[in-house]
Hints:
The chain is α/β, with parallel strands linked by helices. 25% of the residues lie in helices and 25% in strands. The chain has helices spanning 2-9, 45-53, 78-85, 104-110, 121-127, 129-137, 167-177, 187-193, 242-251, 263-271; strands at residues 21-25, 31-36, 61-66, 89-94, 114-116, 141-149, 153-155, 182-186, 212-216, 234-237, 256-259, 277-283, 291-292, 308-316, 319-326. Strand 3, helix 3 (78-85) and strand 4 form a beta-alpha-beta unit. Helix 3 (78-85) packs parallel to helix 4. The longest helix has 11 residues, at 167-177. Zn(2+) binds at residues 44, 69, 78. In the C-terminal section; belongs to the HTP reductase family. It comes from Solicola gregarius. Pfam families: dCMP_cyt_deam_1, RibD_C.
Amino acid sequence: xxxxxxxxxxxxxxxxxxxxxxxxxxxxxxxxxxxxxxxxxxxxxxxxxxxxxxxxxxxxxxxxxxxxxxxxxxxxxxxxxxxxxxxxxxxxxxxxxxxxxxxxxxxxxxxxxxxxxxxxxxxxxxxxxxxxxxxxxxxxxxxxxxxxxxxxxxxxxxxxxxxxxxxxxxxxxxxxxxxxxxxxxxxxxxxxxxxxxxxxxxxxxxxxxxxxxxxxxxxxxxxxxxxxxxxxxxxxxxxxxxxxxxxxxxxxxxxxxxxxxxxxxxxxxxxxxxxxxxxxxxxxxxxxxxxxxxxxxxxxxxxxxxxxxxxxxxxxxxxxxxxxxxxxxxxxxx
Length: 334
C-alpha cells in the first residue's frame, strides 16, 4: 500500500479529482503494473494498471489507495473493470467519501472478490485531505495565508507591504500555491497591490500549471490589472457573500482555495466559518502603527477570539511559518 501511496503522491495535479494509486500484484507477490490517475477524463488508477497488465491481471491482487468507484462519470466504474478483468483480491486504503461514487467495495464483494478495507487509511486520507474535506463540506477547503510582523501588522502606516516576508518565505509560498486549485483575493488587494497571483520560479517567471485566480468583490477591475494577464485564468465574482462565492467555485470544480486577500476579506471568511487552515509567515520585524493582519467586527472581547491548534511551526529563512487549524471544526456547509 505504501508503494501505491507513493505513486499517487508523485502523480500530476489531478484537479478536481483526488490523487489515486493502484498496484497490481501476481500470486507470487511480484508487481504486474503501477497505475495512477492523471486527471479528469483519463483512466482511473485501477483501469490504468489493468490496461498495463492485460490478461496477466486475471487472478491478481489490486492494492488501491481509494475505494474503487461504483458509478459512471467521464469513465466507467472501476469496480466493474476489476471484476471484468478477473482480479481475485482488492485491498483498499481510504473509503470513497462521496455518495455518488461509493459502493465499489460492496460491489466487488458481491461479485466474489476478496476485499480488505482500511489498510493505511489515515495515510491515504492525508494524501487527499483537502479533496475529502471539500466533498464532505460541499465547498472548497480554504487555507488562509498571511504574512505579518511580530506585532501583527500586514502593512506599514503608509500602506506599503513589500516585503514583510523574506525571499525564502516567498519561495515557500509559491511552492504551496502550486498545489491548490484557486488563489483568492478581494478587489481591494487587486486595486491597491496589483498582484500577479501566479506560481513563479526564482527568476520571477510563471511556471507550471497555474491555479485559477479569483477576485471577490463588487468593485470594477481595470483592464490594466495584473490579474488579467495571460499567465493564468482569472474569474471575478462580483459578490461580497463568501458562502455564495464558495458555492460557485465548488460547482466549477474548485476543491481547495488559497486565500491571500487582505484583512477585511480574511475576516469575512472567518465570520462565515470558512477558514479550515491558517498558514502564517511571521517576520522578525516591528512596525508599530500600520494595517492589522485581520479585521473583523465579530471579535470584540478576548472570549470571542478564534482559538487555533498549531499543526507545525518551522523557520523558513529568517521568518517563522506557523500552520494552525481551528480548534472546533468550521461550519461544514457554506
